[in-house]
Structure formats: C-alpha cells, structure tokens
Amino acid sequence: MRFLCLHGKGMNAEVLRSQMARICEFFTPDHEFTFVNGPVPREPMAGIALKTRQSDERYFGFTPDDPALCGQIIDSVSNFMASAKPFDGIIGFSEGACVAATIMIADEQLPQPVFRLKCGIFFCGLSPIDIQSCSDGKGEPRFLNYDEDGVMLRVPTAHIWSTEGGEFANMGKDLVTISDEGLKEESIHRLGHEIPGSRSDEGLEEAIRAIERTIERAK
C-alpha cells in the first residue's frame, strides 16, 4: 500500500520520517511512504530545532496565517495527490492529520470520489475542517465535531493519541468520535504530543497493533 505522510506544524517531511522510523520498521517491504513538506513556512516547533542536523533546515505547516486561505491549502495538497501515483491511505500527525482527514471526508462526499482512499492513520490528530466553511475564502474554518456532524469518516482508521502533553493533551480524541465505530482502532498513550517509538518504545507495540488491524481492514 502507498501512503501519503503529512507532518505537524513547525516540522517538515524529514522530521516526520524520523518520528515514524520505528513504526515503519514493522511494515512489510511492499508498503511505500511519501513524505511531503507543508506549503506554509513556519518557525520550528519547540524541541525540534535541537534535533536537526543542519542549521539551515526549514520548517513548514499546513495552516495559513489568514484562516480564509485554508481552502487553498487543502487544494494544494489535493492537487499534489492528483498528480502523483495513486495513494491507498494517508498518515498524518497533528496538523497533518487534520489535513488528511479533511481531504478524506471531502472526497467521500463527492458524487464520484477522486482518491478513494482506503484508510487513514492519525497521530494526535487535530479535528478536520468543514471544507464548505472556507470554500468562499472569506470566513473562519469550522472544525467538524460529532454533535453537529455525526460520523464523517467511513473507512478504516487508526487513532494514536495521548492524554498528556499540556495544551496538546487529548488531541485526537474528537477525531475518534467522528470515525465509524466498526472501522476504527484506537491506541491511547501517555507520551504527550508525539509518535510512539520516536523517543521510547512506550506505547509502540499497541500503536503497531492498531495500525496493522486498520491496514488489514483496508485490503
């Protein structure tokens, strides 16, 4: 299976590749990962700059300074996907998970879906936005939620998130609620706003199981 991988705010493709290195070790060789940079230049997220090998390394995000431009950012990622070899699923961390889920939901709502993604894997995922709320380029984007929108993701999904992490604690919990109950896997850890395996093996085995079950459902 081929996966598009989207990093979090103030990170870049190589940072996410490093964060996911241990998890990717468990995938069979027939799985392929494409890591891409977000289109918006950003200051590095706290702690990220200390790990980099190059002083001139650049960092990005997927959220524009002007919220009214969110639709354009989603379009830019969608255009990349349309120009590339078809992807089977999307992996996203934090802000990248928001973009991933937004694209998946918007595609499912089309009369003739373009991408037909089979699954989504989300780490500490920020809730997706209602693409219609920013389609006119004027208003603030509205985040989807279960109370107003119900179940929106109807493909296999894996949700790996943390109850710790200060302001980022529980990020991913709301995304779980709008995912189909019979098609979702959930792994909750206490590592904070990070991916299991990126700093320690805590939570890694459970996260791998959730991902494996999701991929098996998607086949």
Automatic annotation (TrEMBL):
<dbReference type="InterPro" id="IPR029058">
    <property type="entry name" value="AB_hydrolase_fold"/>
</dbReference>
<dbReference type="Pfam" id="PF03959">
    <property type="entry name" value="FSH1"/>
</dbReference>
<dbReference type="InterPro" id="IPR005645">
    <property type="entry name" value="FSH-like_dom"/>
</dbReference>
<dbReference type="InterPro" id="IPR050593">
    <property type="entry name" value="LovG"/>
</dbReference>
<dbReference type="GO" id="GO:0019748">
    <property type="term" value="P:secondary metabolic process"/>
</dbReference>
<dbReference type="GO" id="GO:0005737">
    <property type="term" value="C:cytoplasm"/>
</dbReference>
<dbReference type="GO" id="GO:0005634">
    <property type="term" value="C:nucleus"/>
</dbReference>
<dbReference type="GO" id="GO:0016787">
    <property type="term" value="F:hydrolase activity"/>
</dbReference>
<keyword id="KW-0378">Hydrolase</keyword>
<protein>
    <recommendedName>
        <fullName>Serine hydrolase domain-containing protein</fullName>
    </recommendedName>
</protein>
<feature type="domain" description="Serine hydrolase">
    <location>
        <begin position="2"/>
        <end position="200"/>
    </location>
</feature>
